[in-house]
Every structure is written in structure tokens, then in C-alpha cells.
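Design request, C-alpha cells follow.
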């Protein structure tokens, strides 16, 4: 057989090895062909104690090395993540978000909200801190525009993540808390007029609630069912004709008493 036979044998083994590697790659690719959209089943949150991120202790959990931020968001993250925690003197929400720092922070929140679930929870932590350190409570001289703008940030987040949260242990409790805060902020905007209520804001809120949980005839969504199990009084209140956000607002006050639209004053 000689050297030529040995070379042929070597070539055969190389061909077999390449074929096996190609088959393995093909099988693996077929098994994961979901574009990365499906999160694996988990029994515990990938970020431990995610509700702490929404509390006053959130700042102590987050730093510029926060491992959940993807490389394409790192530059903006390092520039902007501190800003909500450094707000002083309780500015109006609308005034602060209109500054350069505010606009950059809003853009970061938007980018993280559209990212993976860990980034989305981090975005929510920044929104909660904005709600904690800015004024959005309506007064005699203040309209409901601050509350409306803050509610819009929460609506965008909930529209993207509420459905997923019902089956994700990382998102489940933070999303329910976000819905309660949205109710608290939106009820402020509805009651902002000196006389009467803001019917347009109330109508928009009703449509948004319906899209999230289904209150009229159809079976509740997965999120609606999970929310109702955790906050039955607030869920029942959502079915009412008037003052349907009172239960949400009350639960938000119980969970986060400092989120009162006046920086805890």
C-alpha cells in the first residue's frame, strides 16, 4: 500500500471528519432557527431580585459595567445611566426631559426597551427613577402634560413587554409594577383639569388597558390573567365605567409611596 495508500487513508478520514462537522452545524442551526427571539425556559430571574431595581435601592445595583447591556448600547449607557439618579431639586418632568441630558436619557430608555429582556428591565429602572426625582403631579398652575409624557414612556414599554412578561420570571413582577405606575401617572393626567376630567386622556387610557388585558367580553390576555391573580382589586377596578384606574393607583401608592408626582414631598 505504501505512502500513496497512507495518503488516501488520511484523505478519507479528513473527509469523514468534515462531513460530521457539517452535519453537526446543520442540525444545531435547524434546532435554533428562531432568530434568537425565544427565551429559554427559566425557573428564576436572570437578574436576581429584579424588583430591587425599581426601588430606591436601584442605584446601588447598577453601574457602568452593568453586564446585561449589549455592546451596541454601551457608549450611550456609560454616558447616560447616572443621569436619572443625579436629578436634584425636583424639576418638572417635561422641563427635564426637554434638556439635552433628558433627551439623551429618553433615547437610552428607548434603545434598551427595544433590546433584550434584561435591558428592558434596566430601562424600566431608569423610568422609575425619573418618576421618583421629577414632578409630574398637576397643580393649579401645572397641566397634566408632565404626567402624560411620563405615561407615554411606560406605555411604550408595556406595549412591547406585557405579553412576554406572563411567562418570564424576570419580567413578571416588574411589568405588573410598571402597569400600576402607569395607572397612577395616567390618573393624574386624567384629573389634571381644574374643572372636570380630561376625557381624551381617559379614552386613550381605556383603549390601552383593553389592548393589554381584554376587559370587554373576550377572555383576559395572559398578562391580564397574571395581573388579576396578583392584584385582584385593581383588576376588578379596570372593569368599572368610571375611575377605572383607582385600583392601579392605590396599589402603586402601596408599593412605592414615594412615587407621588412631587418627589416624595
Amino acid at each position: 500500500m505504501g505512502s500513496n495508500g497512507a495518503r488516501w487513508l488520511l484523505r478519507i478520514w479528513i473527509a469523514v471528519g468534515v462531513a460530521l462537522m457539517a452535519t453537526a452545524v446543520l442540525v444545531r442551526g435547524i434546532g435554533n432557527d428562531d432568530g434568537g427571539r425565544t427565551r429559554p425556559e427559566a425557573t428564576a430571574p436572570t437578574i436576581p431580585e429584579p424588583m430591587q431595581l425599581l426601588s430606591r435601592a436601584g442605584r446601588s445595583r447598577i453601574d457602568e459595567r452593568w453586564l446585561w447591556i449589549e455592546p451596541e448600547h454601551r457608549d450611550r449607557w456609560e454616558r447616560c445611566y447616572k443621569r436619572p439618579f443625579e436629578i436634584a431639586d425636583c424639576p418638572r418632568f417635561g422641563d427635564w426631559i426637554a434638556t439635552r441630558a433628558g433627551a439623551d436619557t429618553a433615547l437610552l430608555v428607548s434603545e434598551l426597551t427595544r433590546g433584550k429582556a434584561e435591558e428592558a428591565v434596566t430601562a424600566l429602572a431608569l423610568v422609575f427613577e425619573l418618576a421618583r426625582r421629577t414632578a409630574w403631579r398637576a397643580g393649579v398652575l401645572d397641566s397634566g402634560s408632565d404626567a402624560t409624557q411620563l405615561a407615554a414612556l411606560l406605555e411604550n414599554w408595556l406595549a412591547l413587554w406585557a405579553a412576554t412578561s406572563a411567562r418570564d420570571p424576570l419580567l413578571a413582577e416588574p411589568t405588573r409594577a410598571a402597569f400600576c405606575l402607569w395607572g397612577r401617572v395616567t390618573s393624574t393626567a386624567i384629573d389634571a383639569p381644574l374643572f372636570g376630567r380630561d376625557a381624551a386622556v381617559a379614552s386613550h387610557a381605556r383603549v390601552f388597558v383593553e389592548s393589554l388585558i381584554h376587559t370587554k367580553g373576550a377572555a383576559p390576555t395572559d398578562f391580564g390573567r397574571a395581573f388579576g391573580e396578583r392584584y385582584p382589586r385593581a383588576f376588578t377596578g379596570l372593569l368599572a365605567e368610571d375611575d377605572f384606574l383607582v385600583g392601579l393607583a392605590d396599589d402603586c401608592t402601596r408599593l412605592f409611596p414615594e412615587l407621588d408626582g412631587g418627589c416624595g414631598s
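Comment from the thread starter after seeing the answer: thanks! The radius of gyration is 24 Å.
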